[in-house]
Amino acid sequence: MSLSNSRSGAAGRRGLARAALLLAPLALTACGSVVAGSSSGAAGSPAAPVSARQGALCADKGAVNHLAVTRKGMVTHVQEQRFTFPADVSVTSAAQAQNVAKALCALPPQPTGIVNCPADLGITYQLRFAADGRHFPVVTVASTGCEVVSGAGKLRTTATAPRFWAVLGTAMRLHSPVTQKVFRGVSKAGKHCATASTQMGQAGNCPGKHLPA
After folding, report:
1. DSSP-assigned letter for residue 196
2. Is residue 21 part of a domain?
3. Taking burial as the number of CB atoms within 10 A of a residue's CB, which of 18, 24, 66, 144 is the most buried?
């Protein structure tokens, strides 16, 4: 009985060994298909996440040689605002365009949580930076409200960095002194709108809109 059991055990082990050899290529093939599937999936996905693409400007701000600035309005009241410069301005000086990019990337991050901001008139500026024909994602800078800056990676704000407006104004060749007031405009009644409000309403000639409570 002992000899028979020994032979049966040896035969069983040889069978398992042969089965392992036969299954090994299948296992390798299966692993290869997983890797290939991952690779092909990556090839079909965007080259980089949105945040990475938006962060490209600050990673390569020294290569910027052109900037186009466009003023936008989100509410009808903006049409009643008066500005001392046109809605579209091109900055062809590479040095000045780079100064704006550097000032923008140096802005502090937008605070998280509940923030009490002045009235938001919906006036924004779209900054389109380019480097030798290569265009970076559009950066949007709000000149009223919380003065949020988006499109250059993490959210930033100009609320505590008023010098940014001076740098932008200099690049746009606006008359000095350039302050944030110039970019938010003046109502036709001649008053700057800087009323702090979180309610729908109008203080003087300054329209307001709902802000998060």
Report:
1. B
2. no
3. 144
CA-CA distance, 72 to 87, in Å (whole number)?
8
Number of separate domains in the chain: 1
Distance CA 104, CA 163 (A): 10
- Asked if the structure places residue 31 within a domain, the reply is no
> Distance (Å, rounded) from C-alpha 47 to C-alpha 132?
21
Report if residue 13 sits inside a domain: no
Q: Degrees (nearest 5) of the Cα angle 112, 118, 123? A: 95
Quick one: tokens of 90? 């091109």
pLDDT digits (tens, 9 = 90+) for 20-64: 545 444 443 433 333 333 333 444 445 555 555 666 899 999 999
pLDDT tops 80 at residue 121: yes
Range of the domain at 94: 52-207
